[in-house]
Amino acid sequence: MRNLKMVILIEALIIFNPCYSQDSHQKRQEVIMDFLNYIKEPSWKFDTLVKKYLLFRKDESPKFSKNDRKMIISFAVAYLSTEVQNTKFKELIIKPYLETDSSMQKMFIRRETKEAAYIVYNKDKSFLRYFLMDKDKIVSFVTLKQGRAFVLLN
């Protein structure tokens, strides 16, 4: 009886683990798409970004003050907003970093980070951006086309 319970438990883990992972990826992709949709209008608000999309520590950081981090992130979002406005939004594709073509996997990041990273691109790859997620919040994103590393401000 004990062996039967163990077999059932193992089978349940095998069956439900991919579903959880898929749901997690789908949720993260939705957060990224909602974030991009929100910032494509120039009237976005920093407080709304933090509440809904970005992981932003409100306490002081040893590297940057809260105000410095807010300013840097605001500039990066403004830059990304302009780029999103200039691309065909409906053509954007969001995929987990490890599921994309190897030619797009150019970030200098550890394996664990790759598992939390996503790439947003369009068909001709004229828009290609990297996002780092923690659960359902954006931790960092790269605004440069040839960016090679995430800047973590928290």
TrEMBL record:
Upper taxonomic lineage: Bacteria, Pseudomonadati, Bacteroidota, Chitinophagia, Chitinophagales
Top-level taxon: Bacteria
Name assigned to this protein: Uncharacterized protein
